[in-house]
Amino acid sequence: MTVLEQRGAYHPSPPPAWRPRTDPAPLLPDAEPHRVLGTDAARGADPALMRRLYGELVRGRRYNAQATALTKQGRLAVYPSSTGQEACEVAAALVLEDRDWLFPSYRDTLAAVARGLDPVQALTLLRGDWHTGYDPREHRVAPLSTPLATQLPHAVGLAHAARLKGDDVVALALVGDGGTSEGDFHEALNFAAVWQAPVVFLVQNNGFAISVPLAKQTAAPSLAHKAVGYGMPGRLVDGNDALAVHEVLADAVRRAREGGGPTLVEAVTYRLDAHTNADDATRYRAADEVEAWRAHDPITLLEQELTARSLLDEAGIEAARADAEAMAADLRARMNEDPPLDPMDLFAHVYAEPTPQLREQREQLRAELAAEREGA
Amino acid sequence: MTVLEQRGAYHPSPPPAWRPRTDPAPLLPDAEPHRVLGTDAARGADPALMRRLYGELVRGRRYNAQATALTKQGRLAVYPSSTGQEACEVAAALVLEDRDWLFPSYRDTLAAVARGLDPVQALTLLRGDWHTGYDPREHRVAPLSTPLATQLPHAVGLAHAARLKGDDVVALALVGDGGTSEGDFHEALNFAAVWQAPVVFLVQNNGFAISVPLAKQTAAPSLAHKAVGYGMPGRLVDGNDALAVHEVLADAVRRAREGGGPTLVEAVTYRLDAHTNADDATRYRAADEVEAWRAHDPITLLEQELTARSLLDEAGIEAARADAEAMAADLRARMNEDPPLDPMDLFAHVYAEPTPQLREQREQLRAELAAEREGA
Amino acid sequence: MTTVALKPATMAQALTRAMRDAMAADPTVHVLGEDVGTLGGVFRVTDGLAAEFGEDRCTDTPLAEAGILGTAVGMAMYGLRPVVEMQFDAFAYPAFEQLVSHVAKTRNRTRGAMPLPITVRVPYGGGIGGVEHHSDSSEAYYMATPGLHVVTPATVADAYGLLRAAIASDDPVVVLEPKRLYWSKDSWNPEEPAAVEPLGRAVVRRSGRSATLITYGPSLPVCLEAAEAARAEGWDLEVVDLRSLVPFDDETVCASVRRTGRAVVVHESAGFGGPGGEIAARVGERCFHHLEAPVLRVAGFDIPYPPPMLERHHLPGVDRILDAVGRLQWEAEG
Amino acid sequence: MTTVALKPATMAQALTRAMRDAMAADPTVHVLGEDVGTLGGVFRVTDGLAAEFGEDRCTDTPLAEAGILGTAVGMAMYGLRPVVEMQFDAFAYPAFEQLVSHVAKTRNRTRGAMPLPITVRVPYGGGIGGVEHHSDSSEAYYMATPGLHVVTPATVADAYGLLRAAIASDDPVVVLEPKRLYWSKDSWNPEEPAAVEPLGRAVVRRSGRSATLITYGPSLPVCLEAAEAARAEGWDLEVVDLRSLVPFDDETVCASVRRTGRAVVVHESAGFGGPGGEIAARVGERCFHHLEAPVLRVAGFDIPYPPPMLERHHLPGVDRILDAVGRLQWEAEG
Ligand SMILES: Cc1ncc(C[n+]2csc(CCOP(=O)(O)OP(=O)(O)O)c2C)c(N)n1
Ligand SMILES: Cc1ncc(C[n+]2csc(CCOP(=O)(O)OP(=O)(O)O)c2C)c(N)n1
Ligand SMILES: [Mg+2]
Ligand SMILES: [Mg+2]
C-alpha cells in the first residue's frame, strides 16, 4: 500500500448517511493559550532543558541587539528583530532532531542560529553580500523566506518527500500572523493535511504585520482555529513561555514523526522592537502597549522559574550573559570585516551551465572590471 | 464612525489576559446537514415557495439536458452540467433580491437563468461567440468565472463597496468543493470576515473536482468547518433539499443584510453527469455510487413532499414539464441559429480607446477580411 | 492666471498629492493595500490619506495581494475607483492571476459593459540596496498582458501627472514607480493643470543629433548623465523618456530615431525577454532604412536581481551606456 | 544495432512515454498535478502512470496551483525530481509567485547548493476551440524570468526528447506543450537514443534561400505550410524551429538569417511584449549588415484570446505569413 493510499478509499455517501470526515472536537484549540511557567506543570519540567532554553534566550536577546546595532553601523542592510519573540525562535530550534528541517521566514535568523548555524552565515541575506549564506542541505535549514508564507508549501513538500522515502524526518515551518492571510498558507496547510505530511506549522502571532494589527488581519477566534478547516489539530500557546512553546512543539513533532500528520501551533507573543530598523513603530502603536508586553518578557519568565527553583543563581545569570557577550563580540568583529565579493558570482549559479547569453554577459562584465581596474 | 472603524479598536493584551476574538461555538456547523424535506419542519414551509422551487427545478433539469444535447450538435463548445445540483442552483437564485448580486462559477449558468437571465445570453461563453453574453450590471450577475475561486474576492469587494455606499445589497458567490483549495478562497473569506462584508459563500460540494474526490481535496470534518478559521459561521445543508438550501441561504442573506457579516454554507450534493460533456466519468467513479445519489434526487425529494401535502398533482407535474419543454424548445431553436459574429469586435473592447497599435491591427484584419471576401 | 511659485518636492510627495487630489475630487476613489493607512505605506507614499479621508477611503488590508486586487475588482464592479498599492515589485506576483485573468480582461469580456478603472501602483526596480525580492523590474510581465496600460514616471511632475491620469482612466493602469527616484527632488507646480499628462505619450528629454537613447523610469537620470558625459566623446545624444510602455508612442520614438539614425534602448530590467526587445524590434521594423547601425540594448543582466553589495555591477550605468553608443558603428558613417 | 520499425504516435503519447521512461529509469521522478492520477490528465498525457507507478509517484493533488508548485519545490529540496502538470496555460498563473520567486531563483540564491530539478508542463496556446482561459500563450512571462529554461516541442519526436531532457535537467524547465498539436501524429522511434534532445538547440526544419521563418511550437506546421504555399510566389523559405526559447540558439538562427538576408518571426502569442520582440531584436543586433529588409513579426493580436468562434481571425495563418513575406522589400533586392 502506498503512502497516499493509506488515507483510505473514498466512500461517498448521500446525505442520509452523511458523517464528518474527521471528528472536529479534538482539532479545536483550548480556550486559553497553554502555559507552563508559573504553573504547577513547570515543576515536572526537565532542568537541563530549562537551563538550555535560558542560555539560548539570553544569547538570542543579545544577538538581536547586536544585529540591530550592526544596521546602525551600516554593516547590515536591514534587520528584522525578534526581540520579545526569543522563546518561539529558540524552542523551534531546540525541538528538532538533527535530521529534521527548519523553514524560517526573514525574521527567524535567530532560530537558525539557535539550531547551530554560524550567525555570520545566517545574516548573509541581511548583510547583503549574497541571498543565502549557508548550504541548506548541510544544516537542514531552508533559505530565509522573504515572500510571506511561500516557504510553507516547501516544508510540506519536503516532509512529504521524506515520508515517501521512508525517512523519519519532520519539517517545522515558521510564519507570522500576517502571513496566515496569504493563499500559500491555506494551500500548504491543506496539502499537509490531505497528505498527512509530517510537518508542524508555528505561527508567531506577534500582534502586527508591520503596522497592521491582528484585528485588521483576521476575525478568527484565534489563528489556531484555522486548523479545524484543514482537519488538523490547532494548538494555542503562550509564545513568551519557552517551556510551553517547547512542550507544544515537541508534542506536534512527535505526532508528525509517528505518522499522525500535521499540526498548527499559534504562539501568542509580541514584537518588542520595530518591524525592522527602518520602521518607526510609534506611528502605529502606543508605548504603554509595548510596556505591558515587556512585563511578560520571555527571559524574565524563565529566569523567575529557574531562580525560584534554585536552578539558577547570580553566577549562572552572569555566565549566561558572559557567553552571550562573547558571541556578540565575535559576531561584531567578524561582521566588521568586509565580506569577500566577486562580481563574477552573478553569473555562476543562475543555471548549472551558463547559457550562451550569460557567457557573453559574463565576458562583458569581466572586461568592464578590467577597464575599471586599469582606470583606477 | 466609518464602516471599518465599527469593528472596534485593537486592544491587544498580553497572554495573561488572552481571550478569543470571537466565540467559536456559534461558528461551528451542526453535526448533520440541515434538512427540511421529509421532516416536520417541512410542514411550516411556504407552499408558494415550494411550488416555485419545484417549477424551477424541473426547468433546470430540462435546461441541463438541453444544453448537453446542444454540445452533441456542435452548438455549444462545452457544457458543464449541474444535473443533480439543481436545488443549489435554483435556491441560490431565488433567495436573492433584485438589487443583490450573484457571482457564478462556470458551472452555474442555471443559477443565472433561474435568476431571470435569457439562457442564450447565459450560454454565450459556452457557445463560444463571446466571453460574456449579458451586461453584468443590468442583471447583477457577474460574468461566469472560469478560473476557480477567483470570483470570491470580487464578491467580497462588491459587497464591501455596496456597504460603503450605504446600499442594502448582498452578494452571493458560488464555488465548488475543489475551488475551496485555492488561495483565493482563503483570501476572500478572510477579507469578508475582517471587513464584515455582506456576502454569502455557497460551496456546492458535489463530491468531485473533475476526477478528484473530496478525500483527496480536504481532510476537514466538513468544508463548512473552514468558516471557523475566518471567524464567520459555517452552515452545512443537504444540497439536494431545495427547501433546506433556500432556508439556510435566506438566513445567511438576512444576516448579511442586517450587518451581521458573511456566512459560509456547504451544500452536500452530487454531480450526476460527467464533469463536462468532454469528460468520461466512468474513469474515476463507479456506477453504483451514481445510482445511490440518484435515489436522493432533488426533484423527487421535493415532488414527494408536495404530493404528500397535496400541493401538487399529476396535472401540476405535467404543467411543470410542459413549461420546461417550452423553454427547451425555445432554447434549442434559438441556439440552432448561428449567432451574429463580427471579427472587428476583437479590437472594440480591449480598452476604452484602442491603442495606436490596436488601430493598426484592426486595419490589417479589415483588409484581410476584404481580401477574403473578394477571393470568395 | 496667477503666477504660482514652484516648490521643490520629491517624487513620493507628488504621488501622495496625486492621490489626495484625486480623492478630494472624486469620492469613488479608494486606496487600499498593506500598511497604506495608519503607517502611510512603507515608502510613506499614502501618508496622511487615512487621516484626511478616513479608514474607509484609505484602507489597511489583510496581508494577501490576490485578495487586495481581487476585492478591488469587486469594488470597481460596483462603481468605485480603487487605487491598489503593491508593497514591492515581487510582492505583486501573488496577484498575477487576478491581474491577468480579470483586471486585464473584464472590459473585453463584457463587451465594454463592465470596465475596471483600477490603478495598481507597484514600486519597482533596484538601486536602493534592498534584499532579494525588493528590487525586481517586472515591467515585461505587464507589457505582455493585453488589456493593461503600463506607465512609469521618471520625473516629479510626471509622477503626479501619470498617477492622476491613471486614476482618471476607465481602464486598468499599472503604475510602475521607480523606488530609487522616490526621493528625487524637483521644482514642480501641482496647481498647473497641464500637470495631468495624457497616457501614451513619450517625451524628448534632451535633444541631440548623434543617436537616441530610448529609456524610461529609473534609467532616465542615468541616460541624461550619460548624454552629458558623451559630449566629451563628441556625441550629441538625444534622450527619449517613454513614460508609457502601453500604449507605446511609436511616433515620438521613431521620429527621433529617424532623425539620429542610431538608437540604444536602456533599462535595468533583465535584457532577455525584457521591454528592450519589443522596443528595439519596433524601431527596427519602422526605421529600418534610417538606421546606420543596429539598435542596441543596455539592460540588466539575465540574472536574478543581485544582493545589495553587488547590484552596482548589474545596473546599467553611464559607462555601459557609452560603451554601447561607441559600438554604433560610427566608422561606417562618414 | 537492430532496425526498429517506426511507429506512428501522437505528441500526447510521446509525452506520456517520456514520463514513463523517466519514471522507470529514475525512482526520484514524481508526477503531480490536478487529475493526473486516476483520470490520466484532462488531455490523458499522464495516462497509465498512476496505474504503473502507484499513487505516490503520480499524484492527484488538491486543486491549488501554488500549492502544487510550492510542494514540488519542497520535494526537489529533498532530492526528488517533480514533474508538475498545470492543467491549462491560464491556470498556471496562481503559481506565478512560486515560479518566479522560488523555482527560478533557488539555485542562484544558494550559490548552487540547492538546485531545483523541477519540470513544469504547461499545455498552452489556442486553436482548440477552448473557452476563455484555455488558450493563453504565456511564453513571454517565462522567457522574462532568469533562472528558467523554456522549451516547446513542435514534433512528436521533440516532445519526447525535450521532455526527457527537461526531466533530466538539474534546473527548472518550463515545457510548453502546444495543445493543438497533442493529437498530431508522426512516425517516431522511442528506442532511438538520439531521441533525447539537448536543451537549447534550434533546428532548421526546411531549407530555403529567400527568407527565414523563425518559429516554434504550434506555429511550426503553419509555417511549413506557408513555405510550401510560398513556392507558388517564387519564394524559397527556410523554416527554423526554435524548440528552446531559453537558452536561445543565436547561432542557428543567425546562421540562417545571414544566409537568407530576410526574416519573419511567427508566433501566436500576442505581438506586443511577446517573444517575437526579443527574437527580432536579437536578429537585428547580430545580423544587421546581412538584412535586406527589417525583421518582421507575425503574431497574435494584442488582445485577450478570442472566443472559439473568432479565434481563426486571431491566429497567424498562412495568408498572414505570406503577406509579411511579401513585405520583405523584394524590389529593393536586385
Ligand atoms: C508576499 C509578500 N507580501 C508582502 C511582503 C512585505 N512584508 C514584509 S514583512 C510584512 C509583514 C509580515 O507580518 P507577519 O507575517 O505578521 O510577520 P512579522 O513581520 O510580524 O514577523 C510584509 C507585509 C512580503 N515580504 N511578502
Ligand atoms: C485556477 C484553475 N485551475 C484549474 C482549473 C481547471 N478546472 C476546471 S473545473 C475544475 C474542477 C473544479 O472542481 P470544483 O471546484 O469541485 O467544481 P465542480 O466542477 O465540481 O463544479 C478544474 C480543475 C480552473 N478552471 N481554474
Ligand atoms: Mg506579525
Ligand atoms: Mg466539485
From TrEMBL, chains A, B:
Its cofactor is thiamine diphosphate. Keywords: Oxidoreductase, Pyruvate, Thiamine pyrophosphate. It comes from the Bacteria. One of its GO terms (molecular function) is oxidoreductase activity. The keyword Transport does not apply. Residues 1-32 are annotated as: Disordered. Residues 65-341 form the Dehydrogenase E1 component domain. It holds the Pfam family E1_dh. This is Pyruvate dehydrogenase (Acetyl-transferring) E1 component subunit alpha. It comes from Streptomyces doudnae. The gene is pdhA.
TrEMBL record, chains C, D:
Residues 9-184 form the Transketolase-like pyrimidine-binding domain. Its cofactor is thiamine diphosphate. It comes from the Bacteria. InterPro entries: THDP-binding, Transketo_C/PFOR_II, Transketolase-like_Pyr-bd, Transketolase_C. CDD domains: TPP_PYR_E1-PDHc-beta_like (cd07036). GO terms for molecular function: branched-chain 2-oxo acid dehydrogenase activity; magnesium ion binding. Keywords: Oxidoreductase. It is an enzyme of class 1 (oxidoreductase). It holds the Pfam family Transket_pyr. Its EC number is 1.2.4.4. This is 3-methyl-2-oxobutanoate dehydrogenase (2-methylpropanoyl-transferring). It comes from Streptomyces doudnae. The lineage of its organism: Bacteria, Bacillati, Actinomycetota, Actinomycetes, Kitasatosporales.
